[in-house]
Amino acid sequence: NFTKVRPKYKDDHSYKNNGSSLYIYDVEARANGLEYDLKIDAVSGKILKVEIDD
Q1: Cβ burial, residue 29 (10 Å; 0-12/13-18/19+)
Q2: PepSY domain: which residues (predicted)?
Q3: What is the DSSP letter of 15?
Q4: What angle do CA 5, 6, 10 make, to 5 degrees?
């Protein structure tokens, strides 16, 4: 169950791309009583960061 998906430009992950900006999807999802916050590269689909809150 995805609650929010919003594209971002020039996120804090830009340093991982040799300093150039990336298109990042900031995704919030809830499952099994936990809330997940994911940062996903919009071009490659690579998951850059995952945070889990209860």
Answers
A1: middle
A2: 21-51
A3: G
A4: 140
Task: Express each pLDDT in 1-54 by its tens digit.
Answer: 555 565 555 555 554 566 666 778 888 888 899 999 998 888 888 898 999 998
Q: How far apart are CA 14 and CA 22, in angstroms?
A: 6
Q: Which three-class secondary structure state does DSSP give residue 32?
A: coil
User: What are the residue ranges spanned by the domains of the chain?
Assistant: 2-53
What burial class does residue 40 get, using C-beta atoms within 10 Å of its C-beta: 0-12 exposed, 13-18 middle, 19+ buried?
buried
Type of residue at 27: V
Residues in a beta bridge with 40: 25, 47
For the full predicted model, state whether its pTM sits above 0.70.
no
